[in-house]
Amino acid sequence: MVPGDLCYTKDHEWVRIDGDEAVVGITKFAADQLGDIVFVELPDVGRSLAQHGTFGVVESVKAVSDLFAPLSGEVVATNDALGGAPELVNNDPFGEGWMLRIRLADAGQVDGLLDAVAYEQLVAEG
User: Fold this and answer.
1) Taking the chain (126 residues) in consecutive chunks of 10 residues, what is each chunk's mean pLDDT?
2) Who's near 99: CB < 8 A, 6+ residues apart?
3) Which CATH number fits domain 7-109: 2.60.120.920, 2.40.50.100, 3.40.50.300, 2.70.70.10?
4) Whole-prediction pTM value?
5) Are 47 and 111 spatial neighbours (Cβ–Cβ below 8 Å)?
6) Which run of H or of E encompasses 107?
7) Which residues pair with residue 102 across a beta bridge?
């Protein structure tokens, strides 16, 4: 349920490192807690993000939640498919439901993220 090859945040985002870039999304746990996602607002390509700053919003039938940048960097791509199919976040949060791609400003920030075991403990502790 929690892929071992990803990094995680306490805010329930996941990160897949790909060279000097990171792919970001929200975890299955977060998607399940939100319920059916009906809208995703993502930043424009070219925007600079600060670690822990908000980068967008996800709306579900239950709530509206801010999305927080797990790492600092420049947005180099967003998942345009979510505009017409926000349910991809619920159906495939670690795959087709990805949200954005960031060119890393400081690769050292990755060391502060949780591994899969630590994230599973976080979720288990509630």
Assistant:
1) 95 96 97 96 98 97 95 98 97 97 97 97 93
2) 24, 25, 26, 40, 42, 56, 67, 78, 79, 82, 89
3) 2.40.50.100
4) 0.95
5) no
6) none
7) 22, 75
